[in-house]
Structure prediction request, 236 residues.
Amino acid sequence: MNNHILTHLPYKSSFRFVDNISLLNENEVIGEYTLKPDAFFYEDHFEGNPVTPGVILTEIMAQIGLVVLGIFLVMKETGFDFNNQELFPLLTGTDVNFNKMVLPGQKVTVISKKQYFRFGKLKCQIQMQDASKEIVASGTFSGIIKKLDRK
Amino acid sequence: MTRAEILEELKTILKPYTVDKELLAGINDNTDLIKDLKINSANLVDVIIDAEAKYNVEIDYDSAEEMTNVGSCIDIIMKKLNTSE
Prediction:
């Protein structure tokens, strides 16, 4: 029932890293993503030894933890007009630590708690867990969502 | 509270968001937060939130828009302190 928000994500195919949103409210979001074994980055990172790049883990955390929650908050607060406007998310800061590797085919869960949403900036404490609920990565993320008029 | 006192406290507030921290020693009313101190524009929100916590005031959207240099930050903080008493 939360997944209608996914239709508003601007990412397509190879760069969309959200499968499902299992919890979404004004203060938190929980979502899941399963790494596709044929994803473009595994071929070269690393050759013969595919490991999910930290920058991709960061992107998964940002898409679920910041962008999904950010779109939800923008829709709620301002009566956004999806017919005439589109949302353009910008990541403005991250501070992430990585604890475990993520391999092709693994499912990860992202849990994000809002610190604040003010003056258009959303800042969250975000954690990524693997299937056994061990912490894969955690950190602080912030971003803004620009509203653009459709041409 | 005087302008000079707020200026000193502002240095502490700005420190985590300023890339070259040595610049803080020489700031004055005309120091621009983005152009001179190279503060990421999204982090201006954190400067405002930290200032609110420090002075126990609430800074609204219009006031926040004006806080572009050190002098305007001090102006807004003094104004909010006076109205909250």
The helical segments of chain A are 54-78. The domain at 3-149 of chain A is CATH 3.10.129.10 (Thiol Ester Dehydrase; Chain A). Chain A has a mean pLDDT of 94.
